[in-house]
Design brief:
Elements: H1 18-25, E1 30-34, E2 40-41, E3 56-60, E4 64-73, E5 89-96, E6 101-106, E7 119-126, E8 132-138
Antiparallel strand pairs: 1-2, 1-3, 4-5, 4-7, 5-6, 7-8
The protein binds zinc ion (ZN).
Length: 139
């Protein structure tokens, strides 16, 4: 599997997911929006998660949300030792203000300070020439 300069696995970027990664590179958070029912999809899929419609448009969403759930990893993930320098890693499920629910890493926050209901804001970390990954920090 391809790796970042930091030695972590790179996402497999496909035609379906490229707009998400490319927008993140430009410091924008985008999602697919159903042109029939208006539901936002995360993660990218060929159809609407709510109604199955295949008419999806990429739209920019506000990079703010609230932590719905979280967990903290104190051990190396996915057998990639290069995660070691990042530990502990806080992973969250976030309810974005625009209505979608997505997962992401919480940074710039001690594990004992992170909590359900915490307001967070996206920021973007470059992982390759063509992609960045959205992460979150306390808002
Ligand atoms: Zn729909």
């Amino acid at each position: 599997m391809a790796q970042t300069p930091q030695g972590k696995p790179l996402p497999q970027i496909t035609d379906q997911t490229r707009p998400f990664w490319s927008a993140a590179k430009q410091r924008k958070l985008v999602m697919q929006k159903c042109d029939r029912c208006g539901t936002l999809n995360f993660y990218p899929k060929p159809w609407c998660v709510e109604c199955g419609n295949r008419g999806l448009d990429w739209v920019e969403v506000k990079p703010y949300g609230t932590i719905y759930s979280l967990t903290t990893a104190y051990a190396v993930m996915m057998n990639y030792p290069d995660w070691k320098d990042d530990l502990p890693v806080i992973m969250c499920i976030i309810d974005l203000d625009d209505g979608a629910r997505m997962y992401g890493q919480l940074t710039d926050c001690a594990p004992d300070k992170a909590h359900i209901g915490m307001r967070v804001q996206a920021h973007f970390v470059d992982i390759s020439e063509e992609a960045a990954i959205p992460k979150f920090r306390p808002a």
